[in-house]
Amino acid sequence: MRPELIVAPERYPLSSHYDPEWVLSLDMGPHPLWQLEEMWADLSLSPGQRVLDLGPGHGATSVFLAREASVTVDALDAWISPDESKKTLTAAGVGDVVRPVQGDVRTWDLEPEAYDAIVSIDAWEYFGTDVHFLPRLTRALKPGGTLAFSTPSLTDDPYAVAPLPLLRDLVGAEVMAWHSPQWWATHTEVTGGLEDVRAWIPQDSLDLWWTWEQALDGEDSRLREALEAYRRVSTDAPALGIVHVMAHKPAR
User: Fold this and answer.
1) Chain centre to alpha carbon of residue 204
2) Distance CA 188, CA 245 (A)
3) Which of 9, 178, 187, 247 lies 20 to 30 angstroms, CA to CA, from 200?
């Protein structure tokens, strides 16, 4: 690993407080703390609020939420067991305010109006395209609550412009869930009944993703090659990146 590559205090000052080797050791996708910090100011979390963290993997985002905002967190992941997550959470000193749960959000029993915010970093592509999903999820948001998620995104929607073969061969049919920002904005507003919807890919998103893969320095170079191919075809906007989507549940 090359952790020095993901030290970026000017770009992401809050994330820079976390050991880059620790973040890399929890790898389940591009730098999760950078993705969360991209939306941080607009989350406007307050101490004591309750947050649902969907797909936190090994727990980096849940640690960040608890430490930086002093909120309580339900960390729901389909793949990582609570026993495994607890090791990370306890070592980070947030085991008393983060509750790890294993389950599928599509079938998990969601308490109505339980959360001030629902956050999901690099997991939305696995469940968020279903037109029946958001109405059920947003019932768990308090009126005025915030939804914030990030997910891989192609600037040209994959149903309009075929993804590059390198990427399609690597991730298979999943690439068809890597929708454009405009697709996600429309889908979120219409299916979720949400307002103030914003969807954007940061200008340097693809470069940041490529840097993350360089820092991992793994033996499998296929993703790095796919990212490099998209860097070559990018012009004014990154052809591939991480889309960030924020919206609010209407207040009563």
Assistant:
1) 16
2) 9
3) 9
